[in-house]
Amino acid sequence: MFGTRLPRYRTRTGMFDDMVAAQVRRLGQAWPELIRPIQFAVEDVPPSDPTPWQTEPNMTSQCFPASHGIPARVVLYRMPLQTEAPSKLELQLAVRDELVARIAELYGRRPEEIDPDWGL
């Protein structure tokens, strides 16, 4: 058993959620008008059956444009990202890059316009 104040108390899922929330806050401070209307979510794995129009589905994240009263959404898939990034720093960078790439995709911008450090 671990106490709530001990480092091992946080699960990998909880730490991943914290990383996503920290990146959303950081991007929200830099681009409040872009980030405010978007909903962000984390799922464990991508859907097993991609939609018919996805020729090459992205297994790490996905974005959904706003439509019919439903806000735009960005979904990150935790397990594929954790599998691809062996260290905590690499995972933080992967989360940042995925969020920035999907936000840029939603707004038709280049990721470098949203975050100049994207991809570094």
UniProtKB/TrEMBL annotation:
It comes from the Bacteria. Residues 45-64 are annotated as: Disordered. Residues 51-64 have a biased composition (Polar residues). It holds the Pfam family Zincin_1. This is Metallopeptidase family protein.
